[in-house]
Amino acid sequence: MKNFPLAPSRLTPFAFAMAIASAATAADFVVSPKGSDTAPGTARAPFATIGRARLAVRALKAEQPGRATPIVVEIRGGTYYLPETLAFGAEDSGTAAAPVVYQAARGEEPVLSAGVPLTGWTAQRGGRMVAKLPEAWKFSQLYVNDQRRPRPMLPKQGYYYVEKSAPTEPNALPNAFIYGGDDIRADWKNLSEIEVCIFHSWNMSRIPIAAVDAQTRLVTLAGATWHASLNDITPKNWYRLENVAEALSMGEWYLDETAATVTYIPQRGERMSRLTVVAPRHAAAATFTHAQHITFRGLTLAHNNWNVPATGYSYAQAEAIIPGLIHATYSSHIRVEDCVIRNTGTYAAAFAHGCRDCAVTGCELFDLGAGGVSIGTEWKDDHHPETFAYTCTVENNLIAHGSRVHPAGMGVFIGHGATNRVTRNTIRDFYNSGVSVGWKWLPGPNPAHANEVSWNHIHTLGQGRTSDMGGIYTLGEQPGTVLCNNLIHDATRARYGAWGIYFDSASSHIRAESNIVLRCEDGSFMLSGIGQGNTVANNILALGQKNQLFLSGGGDDFRTSHIHRNIIYWHDGDPFLFGWPDPRIDLASNLYWRVNAPRDIDFGNSTPIGKWRERDTAAAVADPLFTNPAKDDFTLRPDTPAPALTGFRPFTLANAGCAITKPKTARLPAPPHTYAPAPAKKHITIRDGFEDTASGQGPQGWVVFANNRRDLVTVIDDPTAASGNRCLRVNDQIASYEPHFYIDVERRAGPVTFAFDLRLREGAQPSLEMRDTDPWYKAGPSASVSADRTLYAARGQPLLQLPLGEWVRIEIEADLSAPAADGYTIRVTHGGETRTFTGLYRNPAFKTLGWIGFNSNGPVGNTYDLDNLLLTP
Predict the structure, then answer these.
(1) Which of 18, 312, 432, 531 could lock 507 by a disulfide, CB 3.0 to 4.6 Å apart?
(2) Rounded to two decimals, what is the model's pTM?
(3) pLDDT tens-digit profile of 381-402?
(4) What are the beta bridge partners of residue 536?
(5) What Rg, from alpha-carbon coordinates, does the chain have?
């Protein structure tokens, strides 16, 4: 980022009050690394451990039940390696008048480590240094001089691709795949301790190996992914292997659990005598259960542990079940102020089930295994209000360098929780979204509502690691939720979907106002699914790399969302993905300016501004006159025409982000990137007559959506198949276009042909579509069948009528290197006769082939069959 003006150092009223209180409050007890737990805990004779001070606090509370001033434990500088997690309960609680405060001594930096320092290193061949553990335990992270170090992985750069899907029964969760070449070996040491990290769309599964068949190259995992379609394992998935002993190289470490030893190969210039090596021991540094009015102030907490479960880890999104290094349940008024939380295997802090009025303020959250702060619970608890989190605050924090273990970790996650505030934070360097609010995908009452996300500076997201994410991401109906005065920029993704503000499924009754969104790969704003009643007003939405806005709707429950008084400013491409937005979306008084062609804006379907005003009342095309957009100064000049033309209200975000101007973590080594960007798409071939797939299984490599009923798309034994003895039966038992199944492919130039045999049954209305997935699903050549069995090309062009109950060969051909005006070709072969239809309309936006999919559009109860699918070249 070049020149976003930063605010001068500032203190919020709360922070100022806390600073005064801190300066004026004398300590009741003192803790020092040089102290003794048999001492009285005074300044001259301090305790040695925080656990001992906690017991002293309990005794003092019993002696002074009516106390009306804070109980203060002062912690002097040094590192405290916690012998166990600090567990605070009801007996440790303070009151509103007398909170219990654990705070750093003035000018000192105490570190509370959930880890253990490793010493006694001995040299071995190959530069290896080996240490014997003081006791046996499993850990999956290691920190050398406060910098995360990786376990040995393969490949050393980038990823492997799944070679082939493993045969699975319908609806079975994937737990195996065929690997390529020698990517995996059956003779590796401690095979069951090797983890396979498989990337899907917006998340990653991490599952240990159970068995390897070297002859068939089948690897079976110790567990399955969480969803048969959303987390499938097909040739489109890339993966890497972690904890491969034979792959140990410089800067990496390996834990031999059986021998209870750690091997580390130092980086160039490192000497073990000068290194502090910390192995995480505990899952949390501090937990709070049914606790109240406890404050941590000025402390550093670090080095907690996260291990993959025996059957692996695979979760829906946002790493919502990953705990925090500080973790609270059914607690209230737990405050974390002016602290540093770093080097975690999890979220930094989690206010989970039943938390109220908790806060993280003025903190630095740095080098995070998952994300920064997690608030509320995930989807299984949406009917239990006692588990929701209310009125929690995340304010004035630097939240940086996350997703290092769990790529889907968020800067701030709010699940089932309401009236929470995320304000004035700087959130940067994550592999997924900055802030995620809501955890319900369908319309209806939502535990997440009336949350505020304001004045945050959110940037450098996705970074090519995951897909389907945003600077601010929302789900579900959220009356009262407000997203305002946020500065969001620079989001890129792996395969699809990096937006600035992303209203995903059923996002409703949310107000997004006075935000600036810049340089997000797929656009500044996305309205998806069946959202209703949203207001997106007075925002600056600029410089989307592939598109600007995606405004869609659907379903009978869809209602108007309002897009008013925004400035849409861009260089190339179209203002809207898929042309005109859904007609039920209310657009009014938006100002548009395309820098490279300011007077020649096409609003879709060759629509000039004059006709566009029928759709967007009082829309204007004019240069908004930003002060210096080349240097990221998007304040408006005094002579801007925007207010007069559209009613836009100028604003500045100079104060967006946190006020921490001299971060303590700036002295730490930069956290390394732990995952590489996604690899280039694999060249997937399709040549499938289903003879190698057992009857009753689904199509290998295809993603099936059928209301979680993969048994509706299965291979059957059929002596009348188009060839061989098997074909694919599609049983349409679902309304709308499902069963729907697709495969990701990659073809960027030259002629390409997709062919298949089709047999229609009464009522079947299948369709086939080829799409360009970059940018976002631009529809290309297609073929569809109507109720009277007429075969149609794109734009509803009728071609011929197909027979009932007989096999027909259909070929769809397009030259990706030819102009769109050349169209595409469909060839239909039946009874030895071929009919060819050329020059069919091809969408000019369709430039590359990235997706092929079948939809089922007929009435419930029909079936159709497919055979001999072939993609060439």
Answers:
(1) 531
(2) 0.94
(3) 678 889 999 999 999 999 999 9
(4) 512, 563
(5) 29
